[in-house]
Amino acid sequence: MLAALVFALLCIQSGHGQTCSEGFTYDRRARQCIDVDECRSLQDACRGDMLCVNQNGGYLCIPRGMYNQPYRPEPPAPPELPVYPDTSVGFADTFRPPPPGPVEPSYPRVRSTAPCVLGYAVAEDGTCNDIDECELNSHQCNPTQLCINTAGGYTCSCTEGYWLVAGQCQDIDECRYGYCQQLCANVAGSYSCSCNPGFILNTDSRTCQDVDECEDDPCTHGCFNTYGSFMCNCDEGFELAADGTSCIDLDECGFSEFLCQHRCVNTPGSFSCICPPGYYVYEDGRSCEDVNECDTGNNTCTTAQVCFNFQGGYTCLDPLQCELPYIELSDNQCMCSAENPACKDRPFTILYRHMDLSSGRSVPADIFQMQATTRYPGAFYIFKIKSGDEGRVFYMRQTSNVSATLVLSRPISGPKEVVLDLEMITVNNVINFRGSSIIRLTIFVSEHPF
């Protein structure tokens, strides 16, 4: 049976070398592709009792029993020549030229008993039907090749994803040619594209499209989509947790002990400042301001008492009661008359004053001023702390001939109440006079430094 396998591909010439299609080889002298005689170059090109016949670009394997001699098509019959009578012998006869000699055929000739050409077989109805060499497994294709039946023969080819190399079908590595946009995995006869995390494969099975992860709400607070990924952000007062998606409260109070003047309380996403009793939070939300209970009326003083406000609290002052031999000169001053013998060597007047002082105030600090209200010619004045300063926290600094300032020399902590007797001594050598006056200063030291 005749099996036809013909490849009619042109030679490809490049700048670096010359290659030819399967079944041809490049002749450097002729500078062209010439046919390869597979019947000579291949060992056992045809199996069994098959005869190898070389063809241009391939070869045929045909049964030896179907051929007995080379065959050439019969030449056309010569035309009939006219008949002439021979008069030389005296009787009529016919003359024909001798027939031409036999022509030697140049290729195989099928026995006259075979009514069909190669690749066909006689059917029951006497017609010639094509023989499917692929179905009968009578083809000569390699195991890696695909047999394709044709009219009167067959063709050996490679399936999709393979190409013919040295007579064998080898897999094409499509990944080398950038078939995929991102990830490519070569498989036998094909390839598979995939995408990096954060992308999905498009319907063309080659390109990748960014996934908007924010549509699935992966973040606790805010989400920002990026190319191939996403980022989570948090509301004010929160910070991103280690998992990158959830938010945890930010403890602002742990940042600084000076965030609030008194005490900081952390809240979800924020913080708040609180103040001790006797204070309220100022407009800035951080500072503490004293509540003046005397002005607001939020105090327990009676009508006979005087409300005195100080930082963080208040006190109710009872009406002035002068101790004998002193008599009340005004609502805050007692006097001991010089005419009274009991007043000898006693201060002439005692003036009552009150002030507040913040705990931990920076030192030195001028906190109170004392001054002579009456001046006498030839007199001079001496100022000193007569009593109440056992801890030596204060001292008097004379600022002029008639005045002095009380100075806080050491820090003092509260809450406490300090009573100082500040004495002003008047000396007049002209009239030989020496006398004194007292300011009884009550200092309310607050508990807090504000």
What does this structure look like?
With 450 residues, the protein is mainly beta. β29 and β30 (333-335) form a beta hairpin. Strands 29-30-31-37-36-33 form a 6-stranded mixed β-sheet, with no helix packed on it. The chain has 3 helices and 37 strands.
Biggest β-sheet, characterized? 6 strands, mixed
Helicity, in percent? Answer: under 10%
DSSP E strands, number: 37
The CA-CA distance between the termini, in Å, is: 117 Å
Rough outline: rod-shaped
- For the largest beta sheet, what order do the strands appear in spatially? 29-30-31-37-36-33
| Number of distinct helices | 3
Radius of gyration: 64 Å
Strand content: 35-45%
Low-confidence stretches: 1-17, 67-76, 80-97, 103-113
Quaternary status = single chain
Mean pLDDT across residues: 84
Task: Please identify the structural class as seen in this structure.
Answer: mainly beta
Topology:
Elements: E1 12-13, E2 18-19, E3 24-27, E4 32-35, H1 38-41, E5 50-55, E6 58-63, E7 67-71, E8 107-110, E9 120-122, E10 128-130, H2 133-136, E11 146-150, E12 153-157, E13 162-165, E14 168-171, E15 183-187, E16 190-194, E17 199-201, E18 208-210, E19 222-226, E20 229-233, E21 238-240, E22 247-249, E23 263-267, E24 270-274, E25 279-281, E26 288-290, H3 293-296, E27 306-310, E28 313-317, E29 327-330, E30 333-335, E31 349-357, E32 365-371, E33 379-387, E34 394-398, E35 403-408, E36 416-428, E37 433-445
Parallel strand pairs: 31-37
Antiparallel strand pairs: 1-2, 3-4, 5-6, 7-8, 9-10, 11-12, 13-14, 15-16, 17-18, 19-20, 21-22, 23-24, 25-26, 27-28, 29-30, 30-31, 32-35, 33-36, 34-35, 36-37
